[in-house]
Write the structure tokens for this entry.
Amino acid sequence: MASAPLSFQRDVDSLIRGKKDKSKIREPENPIRYAYMKLLREKDETRRVLPVDPYVEVYTLRKGIYGIYEESLDGMGDVWLFLIEGPEKGLLIDTGFGIGDLKGLCETLLGGKPYFVVNTHCHPDHALGNNQFDKVYCHEFEVPKLQKNMTPKAWDRLFDENGKGVAYDMTRDDMIPYRPYEIVGMPDGAVFDLGGGHEIELVFLPGHSSGHCGFLDKKNRIFFPGDDCCVGAVAVGAGPPNAPYAEYGTVEALYHELLKIIARESEFESLFPSHGPLETGPAMLSSVAEACKAVLDNPSGYDYRNESPFGVRLGKMIYESGYLLYTSRSVYMDREAAIN
């Protein structure tokens, strides 16, 4: 999938306080994703910025479902957070980078209702805001990585030696002061009860990270797949072979779990990924699974190869989307079975 110059693709009318430094953007934008996001962010009538947190745009995606759009602070892709309102409780999916008062925003949108806070995975754009909350739930395999990042030093990569943002117009004063929080690991299939029969199920969906998971909103028939089913790119890899549960940060592990959720497609109608276009439809899961199967059958038959900040990445085309990105060590659950 081709990409246009960053200077062209990132020109979007934003309502958010702060501005990206285009020269520091590290991830090229998929043109399909760019076109969708430009139209959404400039034309959607529900788009608003609340005074309690001027660093995000809020969209009403359904009655009681809010998309919270945060621009990237580290030069990678912008991210979606999701807030679901149930009859008695709410549920926040991911916490972003930690800029602005996300907790105050959630309390405002929910009118004071209590709510669960969950992580799809540990990466900075999804979990650095965890410290604003007392307790955060995740898949049990992701606990070690979240614990490792439970430190104010986790923000250091976002700032230069003068305390200015490395890729965004901000200072450390824009971040909510760090404090420790409780991490609760949950098994595949764990259910969060929002009251009145409204349940959200944790669905193990590794690959992008060892304990990566999605969330199935059974009432609204929406599956939130995190970073494992995004238009543009799906990146697989869990770090060095000795990392906890590293065998699950692989194409093979993602493929096995994709087959399970694909078998449940009658339970949902829409996909709301954590990056790029929403409402991609269940067929997107099958497209990613097909790319996984092609890699497993012939890991050296990639369609794309590049040098990235993360090393050499290989890419297999995902139908009508982008690339499944992987490395020679992130194909099989046997991490020693590297490819040439």
